[in-house]
């Protein structure tokens, strides 16, 4: 296992412990699942504005949570291409 993979695992466990202890966000700013389900709101006008701004560009998404904005932007009339960090990770690990 690579050091970076192990470091990510340790950070994930630390964040999970913070959420399990009742935090709404972690020290890195990540939302805890319960908080997302109870507190997170999607701004539909922001999603529409982003879709218009992006137009036909390619967008790299890093940490977009549950993907609500991604879905709204892709379902808009824009011709945006949306690439997520997961796909980037797969591409780099297969090189």
How many distinct domains?
A: 2
Beta-strand content bin = 5-15%
List the uncertain runs. none
State the distance separating the first and last CA atoms. 16 Å
Which descriptor suits the 3D outline?
A: flat
Please provide a written account of the structure.
- This protein is mainly alpha-helical.
- It folds into 2 domains: 1-40, no CATH class; 41-95, no CATH class.
- The protein is 55% helix and 8% strand.
- It has 5 helices and 2 strands; from the N terminus they run αααβαβα.
- It has a two-stranded parallel sheet.
- Helix 4 links the parallel strand 1 (58-61) and strand 2.
- Helix 3 crosses helix 4 (68-74).
- The model has no long low-confidence stretch (mean pLDDT 80).
List the SSEs and their pairings.
Blueprint: H1 3-20, H2 33-39, H3 44-54, E1 58-61, H4 68-74, E2 81-84, H5 85-93
Parallel strand pairs: 1-2
Helix pairs in contact: 3-4
Short description:
The protein has helices at residues 3-20, 33-39, 44-54, 68-74, 85-93; strands spanning 58-61, 81-84. The protein has 95 residues and is mainly alpha-helical. Strands 1-2 form a two-stranded parallel ribbon.
